[in-house]
Specification:
mainly alpha; transmembrane helix; cell membrane; CrgA
């Protein structure tokens, strides 16, 4: 009879916790799943914190800077090739107009720099 009375006695906090962590089959649950869920939530929060902010509304498209620097480089390379080849390249028929073509291409790149927004 003493055992029946002990079963009805108030339970301690540890006994209540042990009772809550039992599965329907009577075995205990692993409490590490709660810890791993907390760790996953912390990792997701850290990833969200490290994420780059969205591009500002007035920013240029991604292709703008490579195109701008490409025009500048191609224009100046056109002029350098013209001088180093003594007028045979890039287009021999243009003659001295190759300089104007090179500066024109580079000028397009320069004009793009005036619209460059970070």
């Amino acid at each position: 009879m003493a055992k029946k009375g002990a079963a009805n006695a108030p339970k301690g906090e540890a006994a209540k916790k042990a009772e809550r962590t039992k599965t329907p089959s009577g075995s205990r649950k692993h409490t590490s799943s709660a810890a791993s869920a907390a760790a996953a939530a912390a990792a997701a929060a850290e990833k969200q914190r490290r994420r780059r902010p969205a591009r500002p509304e007035g920013a240029n498209p991604v292709w703008f800077k490579p195109l701008m620097f490409g025009f500048l480089a191609i224009g100046f390379l056109w002029i350098i090739v013209y001088y180093l080849s003594s007028g045979r390249f890039p287009i021999a028929e243009l003659g001295s107009w190759n300089i104007l073509v090179g500066f024109g291409i580079a000028f397009v790149g320069f004009l793009m720099t005036t619209n460059w927004k970070s």
